[in-house]
Amino acid sequence: MEAISVFDIFKIGVGPSSSHTMGPWRAAQKFLAVLHQRRVLGSVVRVVTELYGSLAKTGHGHGTDIAVMLALSGDDPVTCDTSTISDRIAAIKEARRIRLPGGPSDRPKSIDFDYDHDILFHVHSPPLPFHANGIRFTAHLESGQRISETYYSVGGGFVVQEGEHATGDRAVTLPFHCNTGEDILRHCRTTGMSIPQIVFQNERVWRADADIRAGLLAIWRAMAECIYRGCHPATDGTLPGGLEVARRGGVMNRKLIQGFGSSGIREYDDLEGWLDVVRHSTREFQQILKWVSTFALAVNEENAAFGRVVTAPTNGAAGVVPAVMMYYWCFSPPGRSTEQGIIDFMLTAGEIGSLFKKGATISAAMGGCQAEIGVSSAMAAAGLSQCLGGSPGQVLMAAEIAMEHHLGMTCDPIKGLVQIPCIERNTMGAIKAITAANIALESDPDKARVSLDDVIKTMWETAQDMMGKYKETAEGGLAVNVSVGISEC
Ligand code: SF4
Q1: Is the CB of 369 inside a 6 Å radius of any atom of ligand 1?
Q2: Domains in the chain, ordered, with CATH?
Q3: 182 CB neighbour count, 10 Å cutoff
Q4: What's the pTM?
């Protein structure tokens, strides 16, 4: 099986969807690289993008078209200015032109671009054979020649080109191969190392020690900034897309802080100040519960608004892991939350995400929402139990418990938007993760009747049995039973 780095699981990008926004974005970038490589970019006169399967059915709501236009314009999801996305898309549509980026052998080139004819949503065609998220690009050259490439967005922002096999980084040999939970336990038993120590040794194949630590802390910083932005939106207002879903992160943040208001909480004007306020705001169970939900809502409202988020393992489920990490950071007993704890959390959670990707799927188009919220909840449960002193067996047990209670969860986003049920569902995934971690920490994993490997296998079989209408197509469930335009918020 492929070797997956924790940095493949946690990637900084743009909402609202890793498979429908980030993946197509990366696919378009790969296609441009092909044109550069063949030294034909200068003679391109038109680029047509064709979307198949789930990308066709929910691509409008998930911003697939926007991602493709930005990618063809040379933007990168890690660095682009997210505050100008809607203006730039409007400008491309109005001018009916798109400016392809330059490269080593080509200068930037402006070409005609007709939104209605150059991005085709093949809603009534069958999906392409390899995966439910297929995307084909065709470049028309001045000579009349056409160059086509097909890609698959296989979940979590991962992209596979048609006919591609594991090569390069994916084909590296790791010191501790972990394709199953049992592999991890065996490595821990024979070496005496913890799960994050095992994963760290594997990461050293790709990066220097200092870069691993700095990179993970940078991702944690991006997660925390996303929570902060979601708790302090410019306006409470409603999210884009036409469902009129009200933003609640800012409202809940204000209520939680004001509820504690006059008892010595200082003013703040940045992330650090806010974290200090949150940390000292309460030790009450119900209030902490509300904070965890607020953290998750904040991330996924940012995600729905095309903000900058971190895949964990996907964008739709991007709020679960950060919410639980923030719970650990702010509400652990004094002195218990450390940067090393954050690193261990991410190494552990990332490895659990990899196990699900290898043994099942992290693509909702393949497995429904159990593949997104379920996997993220399992990741967060494992990370938290690691940080709270769990043994390797208890850490895997926490992941198992979290997924066991997400099995069969369908993906049925209303209007194809990553809003309902997605945003609230992240709060549920986070709370379940905390509960799962606490149950595991009080349990003897040797007496567990269900292993993590059992639940991964079960999830994959359930995914295969699940009807297509429940796999990110917006053709079943809430997506068809709730009148569009009626908000639940
Ligand atoms: S329902 Fe779940 S899997 Fe589907 S888009 Fe929403 S968060 Fe993603």
Answers
A1: yes
A2: 17-164 (3.30.1330.90), 172-481 (no CATH)
A3: 13
A4: 0.93
